[in-house]
Design a protein that fits this description.
With 69 residues, the protein is mostly helical. It contains four helices and two strands, in the order H-E-E-H-H-H. A two-stranded antiparallel sheet has the order 1-2. A hairpin with a 2-residue loop joins strand 1 and strand 2. The relative contact order is 0.09.
């Protein structure tokens, strides 16, 4: 089942709305390519560590030590 990957719709010049997306004409005109992926939600709060009051003191001391203060 080896072989080249199929072209993405934007590369194949799929027609969306009024014109073709990703065609040579679009590239020559300088228009940006359509992003096929939706925007991701901002999930930074999910990855932020939970810092308690006691940990805050230790982390501040560690930051000072690493900074050479």
């Amino acid at each position: 089942m080896a072989g080249p990957w199929p072209e993405l719709p934007a590369e194949a010049g799929e027609r969306i709305g009024d014109g073709a997306v990703g065609s040579a004409h679009d590239a020559a005109a300088g228009s940006p390519r359509r992003d096929p992926w939706p925007a991701l939600p901002d999930d930074r709060a999910l990855w932020a560590p939970v810092v308690t009051a006691g940990d805050a003191d230790r982390l501040a001391r560690l930051d000072r030590e690493q900074a050479g203060d």
